[in-house]
Amino acid sequence: MRILGLDYGTKTVGVAISDPLGLTAQGMEIIRREEENKLRRTLARIEAIIEEYGVTDIVLGLPKNMNNTQGVRVESTMEFKEKLERRTGLPVIMWDERLTTVAADRTMMEAGIRRENRKEYVDKIAAAFILQGYLDSLAFKKEQEQES
Predict the structure, then answer these.
(1) What are the residues whose beta carbons fall under 8 Å from the beta carbon of 73, sequence distance 6 or more?
(2) How many Å apart are CA 20 and CA 2, to the nearest integer?
(3) What is the Cα 86 distance to its own chain's centre?
């Protein structure tokens, strides 16, 4: 069982994958596109990853505003979710992604990655944070069920 984590942006999609046990998330790659509305190659690459790794679920970051409202980015992300579900046939779980980019940037800063090089990694690391948050919630639910 592998789960795919995605950080959907206007020009890039950060990609992360879980380990086979569904415990940890690893940043995998950044899919870049030339135009925001051109998704054919992006979806084809995601399908190839799904097939290669035997992905069973997809977690997609939901870009809510800090005050919990939904802006323009949420609308385009939900459209992307529908395209993913239609194209892959897999369930797409929405996951609050607030502050994941900030956390990814902070992690890179602490790791000593130069500011001008951070853009190269931020979406992939943010996708890993999104996916890890989801995996941690699954582990927490499992733990709660075992206690009751």
Answers:
(1) 63
(2) 5
(3) 18
Residue 44 CA to its chain's centroid (Å):
16
Confidence (pTM) = 0.86
Where residue 135 sits, what CATH number does that domain have? Answer: 3.30.420.140
Q: By CB neighbour count within 10 A (0-12 exposed, 13-18 middle, 19+ buried), where does 30 fall? A: buried
Predicted pLDDT at 118: 66
Task: Count the domains in the chain.
Answer: 1
Tens-digit pLDDT profile for residues 6-35: 999 888 999 999 999 999 999 999 999 887
Q: What is the enclosing helix (H) or strand (E) of 27?
A: strand 25-32
Q: Domain containing 98: what range?
A: 2-147
pLDDT of residue 77: 92
At 140 the pLDDT is: 83
Backbone angles phi, psi at 22, to 5 degrees: 75, 30
Tokens of 116: 């001008």
CA-to-CA distance for 100 and 49, rounded, in angstroms? 22
